[in-house]
Amino acid sequence: MRERLVVLLIIMLATAFFGEMKVNPLGGSFRFSLGIAAFFFGLLWFQSVPVLLTGFLTGTFILGFRIGLDQIIGQAGWLESLQVHMPSAFYYFSFSLLIHFIHARRYLESPLLLGLIGASVDFASNMVELQVRHLFNHFPPISWESVFMLLFFGVLRSFFAVGLYNSFSIRQVRAVGEVRQQELEKLRMINTELYEEAFYLRKSMSHMEEITRESYQLYTRLLSSENTESSTALLIAENVHEVKKDSQRMLAGLSKLINQEGLDSQLSITELCGLVMRANRKYAEMMGKDIEFSLRCDVNLCTSQIYALLSVLNNLVANAVEAIYSTGWIELVVKLDKRNILFHVVDSGPGIPSEEREWVFKPGYTTKFDQHGNASTGIGLTHARGIVHSLQGSLQIMNDWGPTTHFAVSLPTDQLLRKEGV
To answer: Is residue 74 within 8 Å of residue 120, measured between CB atoms?
Structure first.
C-alpha cells in the first residue's frame, strides 16, 4: 500500500512539474505541455496503480497545484484560477477514463498500436477540455487548424511516452539478462568443480571394483586351501562393495546437480573460453595482480563436454594466474587441426625448468606454497591430464624458447561433440 502511494505521488509531482513546460498555440489558458507525456508514461511504467484513481487524483492535484501557483505569484484570485484551470482537470479525468476502458496496457508489446491509441486518447481528451473551456470561459470555437494542431501534439506526446517506456524496458531486460548470464556463469563454474569431484569419484569406483574382484578371488583361493583367513578376505570384499554402492549413490546425486535444468546442453567453444578468461580475470583482480588476458578462437563449433573442457582450461589458466608474480599476460589460442581442436595456454610467468618438465604431471609436483610455507596438493595437472585422456586427447607442455609456460591440449572433435558424461 505504501509503495502505491509513493508511486501515485511521483506521478502527480512529475505531471505537475512537466506541465509547466508549456506552449499556448491557441491563445488563452489552453496549453500544450509535457505533463501529459509524463502522466501517460507513469500509467504505462507503474502498472501496479489503478488507472481511474490515478487520473482522478492527478487531475485534482494539478488543479490545486496551478491554483496555488497563481496565488503565490499573485496572477489571479482563487475563484478566477479555479475557473481557468478546472478544464485541465477534466482533461486528466477523460484521459484516464478512456485509457481504462480501452485497456491500453494490454498493448504494451505493440508500441505502434499503443502510440496510436495514446494519440487518439490525447486528442479526444483535448476536445473534452476545449468543450469545458467553451462552457466555462467562453473559449472561441475550434477551427480545423486547431484540430490538426491537437492531432500533431497528441501524436508527438504519445509516441514520446511510448518510446521512453520501450527504451526503459529494453534497458531493464538487458540488465536482467546480464544478471542472469552472471548467475549462469557462476553455476557453470560450480558445476565444473562438482565435475572434477565426480571424475575422481568415478575413478575411485573403478578401483574399488577391481579391489572387490581381487578380494573375492583371494577368498576363493584361501577357501580352497582351507585357510582360516578366508572369511577375512570375504569380509573385505563385502565392505569394499558396500563402499562402492555408497559412491554410486553420491555419483548419482552429483550427476543431478551437474545436469540441472536451465543450463545449456551445448555451449560454443568461443563462449566457453570467454567464460574461463572472465572468471580468471576476476581471480587475478582478487589476488591483486595486473594481468592482461587475450583470447583468439578460430573454431566455430559447440561442445557438449562443457564441464570437462571448463575443468581442464580453468585449471591451466588459473595455474598461469598463480605463477605470474604481479604483472604479465595470459593468452588462450584455439585452432582447428584436421580432426582435432587445439587449445594453447601461454603465459609470461617464470616458466618451468626443463629438468622439471617431466614431473609436472606427477601427483604431488607443485611450485605453490601458502603463507605458512605449506605445499599445495599438486594434483591439478594430474587431474587435468586424466580428463583429457578420458576424452582420448593429449595434454603436454611445449618446449618453447624464452621465459614462458606453454601448455597444449589436443582433443578429437568428435569427443567434444558427444553427450556430456560424468
So the answer is: no
Strand partners, 409: 343, 395
The rounded distance, in Å, linking the Cα atoms of 239 and 393 is 35
Per-residue model confidence (pLDDT) at position 116? 92
Cβ contacts of residue 152 below 8 Å, gap of 6+?
A: none
Please say whether the beta carbons of 43 and 51 come within 8 A: yes
Distance CA 19, CA 35 (A): 4
Question: CA 396 to CA 376: how far, in whole Å?
Answer: 21
Q: In which element (H, E) is residue 16 found? A: helix 2-19
Alpha carbon distance 76, 22 (integer Å) = 19
Length of the chain (residues): 422
The torsion of the CA quartet 67, 10, 104, 165, rounded to 10 degrees, works out to 120
Higher pLDDT, 182 or 142: 182
Nearest CA among 220, 384, 223 for reference residue 307? 384
256, 191 contact by CB (below 8 A)? no
Q: In Å, what is the CA distance from 340 to each residue of 20, 190, 192, 241, 421?
A: 69, 28, 23, 39, 20
- Grid cell digits, residue 15: 505531471
Q: Calculate what percentage of the chain has a pLDDT beyond 90.
A: 18
